[in-house]
Amino acid sequence: MLKFSQKPIEPEKYLKDLIEFCKTQENIIALYLFGSRAYGTAGPLSDIDIAILLKEGLRKEAYSKKELFYLGMSNKILHTDEVSFVLLNNAPLTGQYGVIMDAKVLYSRDEDARLSFEERVIDEYMDFKPFLEEYDREFLKQIKEGTAFG
C-alpha cells in the first residue's frame, strides 16, 4: 500500500514497457499481474502486484539473485517502489497457487512451459489442500480452547 505522503501511482501506463523488457529476457517464461489492479478494483493508494516465471533449471542462489534483479527492474520501469513482486519459481506452493488463480497473464514466451508449470502447481496444491484444511481446523479449535499459543 502506498504511503499517504506519496503521489498516487499509475503503473498501468508503464505495463507495456515492462512487457517489452520481459521480451528481452530469454529466461522469463511469463509475466503476471495479480491483485486489485488485475481486477480493476485498485484505489489511488494501491500497490501493483507482479509475478514472473523463469525457466526451470537454475540453482536456488541464481533464482534469488534474479528475484532481486527483476524486482529492481520492475520498480524502475513502473516508476514506483510500490511493487509487490513474486518470483514464482521461489514462492511457496500456496503463494504460487494464489497467483496463478488470481492473475492475468500479461506476457507468455512459452505457453507449453507456462501451462505445464501451472498444471503442476494446481495438482500439487490440490494434493496438499486437505492437510491445510485440517491444520486450519485444528488451529481454530485451539484458538477457541485458548491453547493455541502456549
Question: Key terms for this structure?
Answer:
150 residues, alpha+beta, Beta Polymerase, domain 2, 5 helices, 16% strand, globular
Descriptive report:
- With 150 residues, this protein is an alpha+beta fold.
- The protein has a single domain, classed as Beta Polymerase, domain 2 (2-Layer Sandwich), CATH 3.30.460.10.
- The protein is built from 5 helices and 4 strands, in the order H-E-H-E-H-E-H-E-H.
- It has helices at residues 15-23, 36-39, 60-78, 93-102, 111-145; strands at 28-34, 48-54, 83-87, 104-108.
- It has a 4-stranded mixed beta sheet, with helices on both faces.
- The longest helix is centred in the last third of the chain and has 35 residues, at 111-145.
- The radius of gyration is 18 Å and the shape is globular.
- The chain starts with 14 loop residues before the first helix and ends in a 5-residue tail after the last helix.
Q: Mind telling me which CATH architecture this is?
A: 2-Layer Sandwich
Side-by-side strand order of the widest sheet: 3-2-1-4
- Spans where pLDDT lies below 50 across 5 or more residues: none
- Alpha plus pi helix count: 5
Helix content: 40-55%
Identify the CATH class.
Answer: Alpha Beta
How many domains? The number is 1
The count of β-strands is: 4
Mean pLDDT: 89
Overall form? globular
Kindly, what is the distance between the CA atoms of the first and last residues, rounded to a whole number of angstroms? 33 Å
Q: What would CATH call the homologous superfamily?
A: Beta Polymerase, domain 2
CATH topology: Beta Polymerase, domain 2
Range of strand content: 15-25%
Order of helices and strands: HEHEHEHEH
What integer value in Å does the Rg equal? 18 Å
Reported for the largest beta sheet, the result is:
4 strands, mixed
Structural class computed from helices and strand pairing:
alpha+beta
